[in-house]
Amino acid sequence: MQLKPPFRWCGSKRRFAKRIVEHFPSEIHSYSEPFVGGGSVLIELINQERLVQGATIWLNDQGPVKAFWEVMTGPAEDFDDLLVSLEHWVGAPVQAYYHEWVSEINMVLDIDDYVCRFLLLNQTSFSGMWRVNAKGEFNVSRDPSKTVIRDITPQLRALRAALAEFNVVVDDCDLFEGGIYGADVIYCDPPYVETFSSYGKDKFTLDNHRFLDETLRTCASEACGSKVFLSNSDCLKTFEVYHPAAWTVLERYGRANSISSDAKTRKQQRGEVLLGLG
């Protein structure tokens, strides 16, 4: 069974994962993805069997994304509770319950309930977008084309079984600690330069990008020896921040701007680039 990304995510590499992974080594013993999101690249690595059995995988993100991967790799009790909650809502009319789910995810919930509400809202909000206001509250509108909840539990069972073959460590998006300095392969897909740069009250600034550039170049140095890959905007500012003398352009591709509130803008293509080090 070929695994699929478990949820929609703005900036997902679902369409480009095969092209990205073509540049990776064929055998990977340790892998770090600091901005894992929906895990499209990770899942493509698993599908292509590039991660050896027992490989160590470091996954970093924040909020509900971090919680999702914690449940997928954590205690069986939390995962089983998540499945029960999701199965309860299968076939539920979205219009009747959407605002209830929004209210509930803004409360303090057990991790399985929190992830359940996240997955329900991911199915039914505009473009599956996760965005919070200055108070940290989810505030994305319902997508009127999504009318009932689909059953995604078989997909989640398959993903958990696949992840059980590896040593997976999930942590906050404090990416400059732990596994990023020890992995054979590092793939980073941060909020892009000169595009939508945050999903909450904290933005990913140009200074953050400069620090990321410095850190990744250290990881690719002879002392650390990692193969490093980075996706970002294909624009002049990216090549000002990420030193062009160090990075190699591996791929260029485009996507529709799916998170714009302007329908005309959503149809426009924006350029993306895959860079490599090491």
Percent helix range? 25-40%
Q: How many strands appear in the DSSP assignment?
A: 7
Strand order of the largest sheet: 3-2-1-4-5-7-6
Strand percentage, roughly?
A: 15-25%
Counting copies of identical and different chains, the oligomeric state is: single chain
Instruction: Examine the secondary-structure arrangement and name the CATH architecture of the domain at 76-151.
Output: Orthogonal Bundle
Count of alpha/pi helices: 10
**Residue runs with pLDDT of under 50 for 5 or more positions:** 258-267
What is the C-alpha radius of gyration, as a whole number of Å?
19 Å
> Which sheet architecture does the biggest sheet show?
7 strands, mixed
According to CATH, the fold-level topology of the domain at 76-151 is Adenine-specific Methyltransferase, domain 2
Between the first and last Cα atoms, what is the distance in angstroms?
A: 33 Å
- SSE run: HEHEHHHHHEEHEHEHE
Derived structural class? alpha/beta
Which CATH class of the domain at 76-151? Mainly Alpha
